[in-house]
Amino acid sequence: MAKLLKDHFDRNYLSRLADEIQKHEPSFPKRKMLSFVFDAEWEQRELKQRMRHISYAMREFLPVDYETALKVLMQAAPQFGGFEAMFFPDFVEVFGLDEWDLSLPALEHFTEYSSSEFAVRPFILQDQKRMMRQMKRWAASKNHHVRRLASEGSRPRLPWAMALPEFKKDPAPTLPLLEKLKADPSEYVRRSVANHLNDISKDHPELVVDIAQKWIKGSPETQWIVKHACRTLLKQGKPEVLALFGYQAPVDICVQNFEMTPAGVAWGKEIQFKFDLVSDASELGLLRVEYAIDFVRQKGASSRKVFKLSEGPVSQSSRSYSRRHSFKPISTRKYYPGWHQIAIIVNGQEMVDGQFELQD
């Protein structure tokens, strides 16, 4: 079984962290810090709670002066990377909101080794105009981690992070950042731009359609951004978005031999379905093939989730498809017993559907 993310913050990590801090602050009390961190509630804390608790421990045992404490952390940070370094910007998020002149350079420094995407958001909420001026400067940085921060940190719906309600209402302040980064040489940055636009599409779909229609004429890298940014709109079957990528209504295509087994799916098992797509023409052409499941929710209503099967040109006049869908428990979805529906979707149009029962 894979190690849980929260368990990366273990005694070995905290010991290494304390040893590194002691190189720059010899009086740092390693044993006291470890005792503080691994208290009676530690095992019950989830990922971000553990990260925040470590920040409190640093505040408890580093020098009282914020500038001095921050300098120590900035010296230690380069020895840590990726996820395990997320604690460093969290310290700034908690204790640095009243020290912008110290905190913003620190967030820029920390993001080079991990990401300050969560930590910048309270600063945006506190003073949006000032922070967006900083974001524009970061968007012009020579470091791709810093450029990504400009986009990722201002996403309206960044997962695991506090929302930015003003940007959900009106994303206009972030659009110059995306325009600046739309042809960035780093795929890491371009992916953030695409995810940012996908966030916007959930509240302002027509705005993203308009941007996509303009950007689709750009470089191959920008075209990739457009495709990835429109993934929610594509799943919604919006005709103008499908047309943007060359998907036409499947007027000469039909579904044949659609089968699902079993009709009753036991909890934790899987359903298998298969079907054929057949065209009256000599080839099926450019296809985006998806399936949707209408999941039963807790109070009997249903909630649809769309899954992609395949996309691309098909030169034959027919093709067979099959898929297994598992109902093993996962952290991102809870299953409820009852009658579910599967629908086959071709180029945004629902072609055929069938029902099966998920059983206790």
From TrEMBL:
A Pfam family this chain is assigned to: DNA_alkylation
InterPro entries: ARM-type_fold (IPR016024), DNA_alkylation (IPR014825)
Name of this chain's protein: DNA alkylation repair enzyme
Native organism: Gimesia fumaroli
